[in-house]
TrEMBL record:
This is Uncharacterized protein. GO terms for cellular component: Dsl1/NZR complex. PANTHER family: NBAS SUBUNIT OF NRZ TETHERING COMPLEX, NEUROBLASTOMA-AMPLIFIED SEQUENCE. Residues 9-23 have a biased composition (Basic and acidic residues). One of its GO terms (molecular function) is SNARE binding. It comes from Opuntia streptacantha.
Amino acid sequence: EWESLFMTEKTREGSIESSKEADTDITWSDDWDEGWESFHDEEPVQKEKSASSRSIHPLHTCWMEILKKLIMLSRFSELVRLIDQSLERPDVILIDEDDAHNLSQMLIGSDCFMALKMTLLLPYEAVRLQCLDAVEGKLKQGGFPGNTDDKVFLALILSSGIISTIISKSSYGATFSYLCYLVGNFSREYQQAQLARITQTSRDDKEAEVFHLTFRRILFPDFVSELVKADQQILAGFLVAKFMHTNPSLSLINVAEAGLRRYLGKHLQELEAHNSSAEARSPEILQNTLSSLEVKLKCSIQSALSLLPTSL
């Protein structure tokens, strides 16, 4: 045993000496280290690519069956909540595009609004636009739906970013009118709730109270910012004037635009000073969606402010 051990050590020593001799035989040129600087420059780019890459959930077939079952049972709130919860992992998509298309086809004939809501939670542009076209056609044919209190619809339109397409393209005029109607309706409800609170005649409705806070803090300022970015400053100014309950005699274009800039500036300061908690966001089934929208809201307001004249 001892002899074999020493023989092993000798073998190791021999291999080390031979490797040293091999190293001395290699002639290193002056530019042997060329390329390392560029290697370090390229490494962060590769990391950035890997961080931004998104993958389909390995169990997407199972999730497809679960979502399909929820649709068949008309359990749409659970459907929205489930997809929203999956957004906690932004690098993983619950289902692939073919599955998203198939699910939307299950809904689009009977409830195109629900089909659009579902697809707005998924990153598939073609499927989204197909459902948006169906909603536009529905609104043109039958007018506004009976549900004039669709909080989820407004929140998803804003969070998905499809609002810019709706505002900028005249082909979605009916959908844009419906969104303006929803915003106006929620603004009126918020003002009534504020008046009831001041006069101490408000009802104890915690859910409505939380949504009014969400609307004032996130949804309304984001809608206004999107209007400004889409070159709709006058409409945005009038909406702010109505929301702030400005005297109608002051609702002139220059006064409304001045109030718009002041409103956005003040709201940006408020966002930077305070972060809302999860309990202060409604609808409750869209916690991750609203959280993401609130984070993006600061940049949206800053972008809108940069487009407004500073001389107002």
